[in-house]
Structure formats: structure tokens, C-alpha cells
Amino acid sequence: MIETAPRPVSPPVSPSLTPLTTTRGAALYIGALLGPGLLLLPGLAVAVAGPASLLAWVALLVLSALFAVVFAAFGLRFPSAGGVIGYVTAGLGARAGLVAGWCFLAGVVAGAPVVCLIGASYVTELTGGGRLARAGVAALLLLVLLALARGGLRASAVAQLVLVGLLVGVVAVAVAGTAGSVRAANWTPFAPDGWFAVAHAAAILMLSFVGWEAVAPLTASFADPARQLTRVVAIALAVTSALYLGLAVVTVGVLGRGAATIVPLAELLRLAVGPAGPAVAAVAAVVLTLGSVNAYINGGGAMAGHLTRPRAGAGAGAGASAGAGVAARPEPRFLAAVAVSGLLLISLYGLGWVSPDALVAIPTTLFLAVYLGSILAAVRVLRGPARWAAVPASAAVVVMLACCGWALALPVAVGCFCQLRKGKQLASRHH
Predict the structure, then answer these.
(1) Which of 157, 183, 336, 371 is 20 to 30 A away from residue 110, measured at CA?
(2) CA-to-CA distance for 105 and 113, rounded, in angstroms?
(3) Which domains does the chain have, with CATH numbers?
(4) Pick from 3, 2, 8, 13: which is nearest to 299 by CA?
(5) Is residue 246 classed exposed, middle or buried when 0-12, 13-18 and 19+ CB atoms within 10 A define those classes?
(6) 279-290 burial, b for 16+ CB within 10 Å, e for fewer?
(7) Closest of 178, 177, 170, 143 to residue 283, by C-alpha
(8) Which residues pair with 222 in a beta bridge?
(9) Is the pLDDT of residue 281 over 60?
(10) Mean pLDDT throughout 361-374?
């Protein structure tokens, strides 16, 4: 499989120092949910499940609504904890909270090279070049961003929203410009690889639905959370649903078998605006790569600082998940870890040893593990609608994790790492 943190993971957002209006709150929620993954994931989903991948989009939109209810309740119930470490700790204990935090951090680190490869794919679609060329461009983008982060460059909340606005605009043009070219013949056969492939496609697409945990701390920033939050969540769900479903429909209905590509948006824009389409897509991809990976690095640096700080408390994840940095610059050791892991993954892709969907599987599985911990914690500590939403959500996450195959070893490895680390800390205290 190839937004973040990770949104890759969606870019983290920072709580406002002044009360949030409903409009700005909705913009921040939408910004946390959308990311550069939209430039790639629709094509990968079609490659796995064919036209039936649309069912995966619909199912994940329903699951996204359940996540929204759960994490909004977490933000209201634990406004000081704010992050996934605090939420999981509240329901499952400190050890589970640390495992969730390290899984989240590992997902952020693994997501950065994936986003760089997305940007590089759109560049080489315009300039020409194969897998090695894409890997080279991705490596260059990653090194440039690490150098900028070392110099103290940070992405502001305003810049993040501008980047999200760019993504929304590009996707809207692609959808509106090609909607009239949808062909019924492209929808058959509907499920060429069977119905199990739909679950596999959902596991791939999950990377586009990560983000609710990042904006949960914002609930405390509303002047009237109980009243505003319902409207904000409704607006965010409506906007993201329209974009996701619109893009999914035209990807299949317009491109047909050609939708199984790593640059579906470039193909759609070529049809929507003519020969300039791939150039527009390439510029948008590079800009989004720069912004989102910068947010990944700074948000991940904040999380790393909390996790490596002695006796990190239950609220250690607050700033990290929300993107509030603890220092002006990420630590050199963290940047070195991003460089080593990122260049390794990009090199494996360039040599043809790792496929795009395998690269996406890494951060996706790690984030799914974080979500499973959070949802299980919600079942234990939340009440009312949030608890009822968490029950089916936990079952859905388990199903998607089961479709991740070999990547399931990653959260297990993180758990073993946490156990060894705790053992070393106990041993050092005894000495």
C-alpha cells in the first residue's frame, strides 16, 4: 500500500490560545482529516478491489463518524490529557499508553517517506523517469525538509490550512471537471478480486481517515464546546465525505482500469484542464509534501520529546498529538532517526524490493494499533453515545488490522521495545 502524523498522517494542529469560532474549528478539523494521501490512495484501493473499493470509502466514512463521536468525548472528558497517550492510559493503563505513544511516533516517522514518495511520483509523472527516479526525488525532498527542520522551520496553523485549501481546490477541480465523463462500463466487473478485497482496500484507505485523535484536544478551545462541537463535527464530516466520495466515484467511473495508478489525480486533471493538468498536480503534490512532512517532523519531534522524557505522565501525548512542539527545533537524534528510516524505506522502494502498498501498510498498521487502543479505552471510561460508538468501531478496526498481514508484526515489535525499555529503566533504578 503507499496524510499523516498523519494525515500520510494528517498534519497535526495546535490548539488556539483564544476561543475557537465554529468556522475556524471546522477548518482545523477538516485540515486534520485531509492530507496528501488523497493524491495516491484512491488508485491503490482500485488496484486492490476494483470498483468495489467505493464500498470501502463508504464504510470508512461511517467509521469516521464513530471516531468523531469517540474522540470528541475524549476531548471533553480529558481536556488536560488531550493526546492518545493520555486517552489510552486512562482506560488501559500507563504501559498501554506508552505503547500507543510509541506506535503513533513510529507511524509519523514511517509516514514521512511515504508522503515524499507521493510528491516524487507526481513530479516524475511530469518529467519522466521510473522507480529509481521517483526514489531519488523522494530522497532529495526528505533531506531538504530535514535540513529545514534542523534550522528551526515550523509549519504554522495558518500555513497548514492554506495547504489543505490547496488540496480541496485541486480535488474539487478534478471531480467537477471529469464528472461528466463517468462511464457505466467502467463499473463492471464490480468486485473482480472478491469481497474480501474490499476489507483490504479499507485498510489501505484508513490512512486518509486518521486525524480525529489530533484534533480531540481542540474541544477545550471552544467557548461553548457542547453546542459548537456538534456543528463542527457535522461540517467536517460533510466536507470530507463529499470530497472522498466524489474523488472515489470519478477515479473509478472516469479512469476505469487506468485508475490503478499511483498518480490518479494527475490523470483526472489531465482530463479536467488539459495538458496542464499533470503540471498542476505536480506543483500541488510538491507543496503538500513540503507542508505535511514539515508538520510530521515537528509534531513527531514533540512526541519524541515527551516519550523520552523520564517518567512521562499520562498527559504526555497532549502536545505531541496536537502538534504543539516542546522545543523550537526537533532533537538531532530524532532527525537522524527520520533520515535513516526514511532513506531506507525509499531505497527499498527504488530497488523494487518494496511495493507502494507495502509502504503504506507500515504507518497504516501502526495508526490502526493506536486507534484500537484508544477505542478500547473508550469502551472502558466513556459513557452514553460515545461508548456505544466505540463498540462497533473497535470491531471494524480489528477487521482492518487483520487485513494488514505481515505489518501486524510492527505494533508487536513496538510493544516488545517498550517492555525492554521499561525493564532497563527499572534495572537502572535498582543500581
Answers:
(1) 157
(2) 14
(3) 22-430 (1.20.1740.10)
(4) 13
(5) middle
(6) bbbbebbbbbbb
(7) 170
(8) 20
(9) yes
(10) 93
pTM for this one?
0.85
- 66: CB partners within 8 A, 6+ apart: 389, 390, 392, 393, 396
* pLDDT value, residue 13: 46
Taking the C-alpha atoms of residue 389 and residue 407, their distance in angstroms, rounded to an integer, is 27
Tell me: pLDDT of 253 over 70.
yes
Tell me the C-alpha distance between 414 and 411, whole Å. 5
The letter for the amino acid at 116 is: C
Q: Which of 110, 113, 114, 142 is nearest to 363 (CA)?
A: 110
How is residue 66 written as a grid cell?
464513530
pLDDT over 70 for what percent of the chain?
Answer: 87
pLDDT digits (tens, 9 = 90+) for 88-146: 999 999 899 999 989 988 998 898 899 999 999 999 988 888 899 999 999 999 998 88
Cα–Cα nearest to 290, from 154, 129, 132:
154
